[in-house]
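Fold it.
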Amino acid sequence: MMLPLYRAATTLLAPAITHYLKRRMARGKEDPKRFDERLGIAGRERPNGPLIWMHGASVGESVSMLPLIARLRASHPSATVLVTTGTLTSAALMADRLPAGAFHQYVPVDRIPYVRRFLDHWNPDLALWFESEFWPNLLCETSERGIPLVLINGRVSADSYQGWQKAKGLIANLLGRFALCFGQSEEDTERLKALGAIKTACVGNLKFAAEPLPAASEELLKLEQAIAGRPCWVAASTHGDEETLMGEVHSDVAKKHPGLLTILAPRHPERGDTIASILREQGRFVSQRSKGEPLNADTEIYLTDTMGELGLWFTLSSIVYMGKSLIHQGGQNPLEPAKLNCAVLHGPGMENFKYIAKKLKKADASLVVQDQAALSKALGKLLDEPQTIVRLANAAGEVADAEAGVLDRLMKELKPVLTDVLPGDMS
């Protein structure tokens, strides 16, 4: 019953949806140069030959796609990969990191006319859906055209699972359209099955297959020279009120560690000006990277409000706090600094990375801090004890490498589907 109501609502509420999109545009949440893509109007011609469509919500999902894209391009070079996401940050990241034979488009807003226009143009041979963004119109229209759907790295948090109990018929309908559903963990897999997935499996979390984040060597050398051996740490992928907390942590720790440099890399770089104002009101000397302000001896907080440079910061500093975790909004991926030999700290709110956080904690490979005071204390302790940094970094690296075979297992499970829909040059 809920699915017909949803589909009808997205038709009847067209004016409200249009107004909402205009507001997003005004707030800088949509790309004005490529906005037509959100209406299902393609930004380029469809390439000849087989087309594999991969969809994920934003940055985290699109990064998880990269190893699989590379493997699919190698195993089936005649196929092109179309990646869709819905955010500006993920689009910018994909522009930098997608290999030859793959390209990005914005996902259409979930209205039937937009979705049909999108599918009419691209007509993919296979759709690989990542994690947990289940747009009803997009999934229904795709499956009704006979395009096979596979859920990759499926994630169902405890809160989402409880929420779907109120819409069991809807989620069962949507999950039932997938030929295969791969959960990130056994727990995710069981929840997918309980919600209506027909065929499920768990091969591991694809985030473990990601390559270490890149760092441009020339820029790395310049930054190392600018830092000149100062004690430093990174607060990465921060959200909302966390930037205020990070400024206060800097003030606390700098009392015992003069010359401390805090590298602050917000999850949403477009908030850079706002963050800089907050930190300057605290009395901090801030250098804002997006404005070309120099990192020098006076800089207390280096605000790196840019895209695609986390690899630089994780290479520069061996101490990393992963954001969105002190404010209980699900956390960010701790494997990224772990793969670059960093000691990892995070708050208790790691619901979106529960399995990874649990693995790190079990291996004594991370420090979990409950609040600002605990973060200040832990950071000070690490700066005093380089040997503890090395121990944590080594242990985190072992955890990050422990499931490197996940991609091989996934490809083995996908082979029957790939053979059916992409015959020809599969190896």
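The chain has two domains: 2-205+404-421, 217-401.
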